[in-house]
Queue: 3 jobs
Job 1
Amino acid sequence: MAEIVLGVGGGIAAYKVADVLRRLTESGHGVTVVPTRSALRFVGEPTWAALSGRPVRTEVFDDVHEVPHVRIGRHADLVLVAPATADLMAKAAAGLADDLLTSTLLTARGPVVFVPAMHTEMWEHPATVANVETLRRRGALVVEPAVGRLTGADTGKGRLPEPADIFAYVSDVLTRGDAGPDLAGRHVVVSAGGTREHLDPVRFLGNRSSGRQGYALARAAAARGARVTLVAANVALPDPAGVDLVRVGSAAQLYDAMVEASAGADAVVMAAAVADFRPAAYTGTKIKKSADGTSPVIELERTSDILAHLAAHRPSPKQVVVGFAAETGDASGSVLDHGRAKLAAKGCDLLVVNEVGADRGFETEDNAAVVLGADGSSVTVESGPKSALAHVVWDLVRARL
Ligand code: CTP
């Protein structure tokens, strides 16, 4: 379990951060809350003290004999600043130290995560943009704000991600330890979920895919500092924090979204289950049972192979392209034989091969795989959380960037 400093900035989203604190302490982490003076105008000291079970200080002049900013900063495995206001990030970027939180930021040696929340205008202001860039360049993780309802009637980019999503992000950063944001400055695109090909307004041909592996890949990349575009086909999971989410339905929509997002990207991972066939015709009204009892015949046509297209039309030869393959062995070859053949046919750099069966690989929390490389390499990942497989994939991508 980790020692975490939770720095709370003076924004209305501070009330949501009380829930983040609760999730951190309930999962066994030790949390010292360091609010700024203005944070205490939104959520008072007793709330932070009660939920953390520890005393709460704001000033360097509280308990001076303990030199708290040095002690707290040095002992932290991670510093989480949420909500990170424009003012707080400006101070951190400039190295100012006029209270306990900003002083602690200068003594912290572990990962520092800023979770901004502010109005869109403030987030997009060149001063904030420059401060965020400075913080990222120095190795801090600054989570991209979510898009949605802001304080008051307006909506836009600047919303604090949901507490559960911040918690998941922090957990991912903690599993990395001191490894650092090794994907900082990179843009990666991940597809997730399963496409649906509609026959009529109520029926579709679909794929069994929860989207969990793709979401784990997106979260892991964000925790390693990458800018992440996640193209999700029919996924009912919480939005990962700090990730640009594009929702699609059909294979054709996924194709368009992937082609658009991957222009300029450093790496593309196709974790979505894509329908290989779609109904050749779409009926605009619900297909009814015929009076004479005959069954309709549905003609299918091929969809485009998105992975093969992306691998063959890379915007730069340096872009790394990764595919997934769910295989079963059969009379013509083993799981890995099929995997090798698919890697070559698709033209990608890495292929993550899962062995699937009636109850293996789908809608589960764990995954086991062999990651095959176009260079002939092969890395076995034993059964474990989908986030562990995700980090292995990013290690292999990172080595190829
Ligand atoms: N894929 C894709 N476009 C398709 C089908 C698959 O991009 N129309 C991608 C998947 O996202 C995955 C990889 O290709 O990364 C392998 O998917 P799989 O369904 O195993 O491959 P298929 O080409 O459909 O091969 P098979 O004949 O074994 O179904």
Job 2
Amino acid sequence: MLQTMIVGSLPRPTWLAPEGQQMHVNWNLEAAKLREAHDDAVRLAIADQEEAGLQILTDGEQRRKHYIWGFTEGLDGIDFSRLVKITTRGGRYGESLVDAARVVTPVRRRGSVMAEAVRFMKQHTSWPVKVTLPGPMTTTDTLADEYYGSRQKLAAALAQQLNDEAIELAEAGADIVQFDEPCFNIYLDEVEEWGIRTLEEAAKGVRAKTAVHICYGYGVPIVLKWKTTNTDWSHYGRTLPLLRTSAIDMISVECAASGVDPSVLAEARGKDLMVGVIDVGAEEVETPETVAARIRRALPYVDPMHLYPCTDCGMIPRSRAAARGKMKALADGAWLVRSELIQQSRKGSTVMGYKPSA
Ligand code: ZN
């Protein structure tokens, strides 16, 4: 119980990506050396997670220049040579227009995008491995459609490609395939009308646990500004009941930095819940006690066997030192609560899994 993991990304070493370019990078290395550099960065990401004491690992998304482009660049039908400006995320976070690639013909994978990366992970750790993909709705929201004519149609086409990819990632050894859908917190009507169904299409037949990550985006200033002024978190009352009856196994909810009341988690009872107990918007490292307190707040609403203490979102904007500290606090905080629960249950004298170092 209380198995720990991060949402997905970790900051990249500065020899791999220039500082200040963490979100959408131009690699520091020429193509010939990039493969080796990515492998090395992934080995470090694995080592950092293992050293911290996490129990489910990702590759820190070290190979991706961006969490969505990392997949869409593997598709035919999208023109990256001439970008256009679009509004994304409903303009919620106050960004000005952003560069978007254009969908110009049917989208189609040229081949597996991440299966080799999953096989590399499985060769270098014995812990369960999670791999992340952008969800169909969020991917749709990040592209300029000049072919399909409707968001729903583009999302359905992307879901088919994501499904083919997810099935291959599971075959390659992924234990969890997670779809990142921050847009599930924004376009609530569309989530009801076609978002959940399209997500299920992306996850259909995948022989691994399937997960969805819902959040308010990376801990960057414009997002933090919105988060600190928002007071209405009632949207979970609409999305979680829909996800509870969906085919998706696990749901990731940001609970540390946002003001989300953990009682909303009761709406997803029965599902596995990745509960965000690490704020990814601040360099300050939480104490294990703070993390433990955040986990305890969720316990009335989530069975501990279904509760996965997690970060709020990706840690890519953070320093590597802060990310390492936060992962250790996550593991140690979960250990504190796990120990308490085991003592309370009096069902065993040993604590399974991680023990914090002195
Ligand atoms: Zn996120």
Job 3
Amino acid sequence: MSFKDLKLIKPIQKAIEASGYVEPTLVQQKAIPLVLNGKDVIVSAQTGTGKTAAFALPILQKLYDKQDAPKKGKKIRALIISPTRELAVQIHQNFKTYAQYTNLRSLVVFGGASIEPQIDTLKKGVDILVATPGRLLDLHKQDYVNLDYVETFVLDEADLMLDMGFLDDVKKVERLCPEEKQTLLFSATIPSKIEELANTILNNPERVDVTPTKSVAKAVTQVLYYVPKRNKIELCLHLLRNNIKGNILIFRRTKYGVDKLEQTLLKNGYSVNSIHGDKAQSERQTALNKFKNGYVKVLIATDVAARGIDINELDNVFNFDMPNVPETYVHRIGRTGRAGNIGKAYSMCSADEKSYVKKIQESLNISIPIESEHPYPLDPKAKPIVHKKKGSKYKKGRKSTASKKKKKRWY
Ligand code: AMP
């Protein structure tokens, strides 16, 4: 199927060509005709499948078709809510790209950033609003947002909304929109609570299911290292120096863990940045942009901060902590190996995380190849490849690992 078969109008076709897309992805093939037909749709798809364009393109087309309508540019006619700020920004960037040959106006609003510029733009009028739920409700309460004219309501990453405790806010937002509207729900997984939500807010929805959630992209080479918890940092440094080529997104379970690892890598001379929920929005965005533009090769993130983020040409994903939920493993490693590229996923498992690996392997029906040839094996009987020299590695006064290995560094 080609984009032509989807009967998209010229300005949108032109933007698609400018984006370099040759053919629609599966989720686009399935969802775009339904959205253009005005159906409510539940889409089960992971990020990386092209799901943003699957709703953005038909929404833009529908708004453009009615471009002579008196409401144009004055009223919010499409509302997209997203659980995280980064994702909201990314969705908005996509809208801007796809709308570049139309005169439709869009805006993104999110918390943790100054509200004034958002209010100023809202006052001028926008056709499309992308928002995180909290800031949206705030702006509505202050009367800067009128949702009475919303024709299409999109709930993106619904399962993450649920995980982050936004479900009540989502319901509130939905009730602020007109009853008569098109609703699209996107979710990587459809747990029963999301099913319930869909039953209450969607009207006779069509279903699109493109990726079995529990499947790992074939383009990702996985490797697992069993390592004592106390040696994880050393192994991480060892792999960064010797094995890992290209950029890398490192996942840690906690914000504290992210900060700690960032400090260690900085001390060892790496160019590194991090994102997590406690960071100011501007910091998170700067970190992400630097990483996306290649100025920083290592980004450390918590799951929530990284979920849904699309980074072109991400070479490596690194599970510093094993995720305890199989779906999270799929999401994390699905950040790489996209759009025809080959990616690599490294995972470190300590003794207390063995049950997580077991659960991941059983649930996903995979066997993650184990790399036992490394200096810090978990099994103490296993012969270490590199013996820690007495008084060398981690004692005061020794030459820093970074300076020692300077010549070998890949950035
Ligand atoms: P998403 O799942 O929306 O996060 O999209 C993942 C990536 O796929 C983004 O970088 C999009 O720009 C890209 N993309 C979306 N649609 C297509 C397409 N039809 N062909 C190639 N790349 C696409």
